[in-house]
Amino acid sequence: MEIAIQLVIAGILQGGVYALAAFGLSLIFGVSDVLNLAHGEFLMLGGLVTFLVFEATGLNPFLTGLFMLPMAFFLGYMFDRLLMRPLATKKLHIRLMSSVLVTLGAAITIEDAISFLFGAEEKGVDYSLPSFFWGDIYFNYLRLLAMGMIAALTVGIHFYLKKTFTGRALRATAQNLRGAMLVGVDTHQIRSVTFGIGSLLASIAGVFYVVLLSIAPDMGLSVTIKYLCIIVLGGLGSLIGSLVGGVLLGLTESVVSYHSPHWGQTAAFLMLVGILLIRPKGLFGK
Length: 286
Description:
Helices cover 76% and strands 3% of the residues. By secondary structure, the chain is mainly α.
């Protein structure tokens, strides 16, 4: 029973980290019709910066993540301005194919550059907080803190999209591009802002990743595929869908990996296929 509870906690936490980055990718695709295969690289870069700052200064990794937010937003914003905006005027099928090639090339370039500059080995932050027992159940304050922060971030994202002008403009652009343009929304600017927000969310996820697990320069594409699965599972553009999809994926990986470490990801993808056979548009897709 104690092991089962710990597996559930680990799965929920891992799924929450997945969901943060997956929702950023979902926003980008919903607003710009761009399949950003370099999205996982922003997670890796967020984790790498956190690792380097911690090694050099010993600064609390979560504070590093807070200070890193403007840089992460700026990188995503410029990624769209420099690489994606030239594709915005192309026809949809051309834009989709071109975005795949451009972002895949960017992902490979970033991975190779980071491997060359900082080495290809895995990196993790040796940061811990006290633990405690509740009965026979082991709890780690660091994991509980991370779960609380992820929950707070999720609520913050929800209110940003619902209550702010930029959030409403972003949702309007995703729902009806022409309609948003007719009411005066600068859709090109909103696209760039969306890339910035998506990159910011991925970088935050990278902070949790490097503290709780580890990062490697070549991890970007593999985690991007997981995020795509979460988006398909939860439904495009749905924050709740991304959260539920991420938690389901995390729980499946956690439970199956405990019994057979090599089958965790396979079981998660089989679960995805099974749900899509029942709900082709995802759990919260419309």
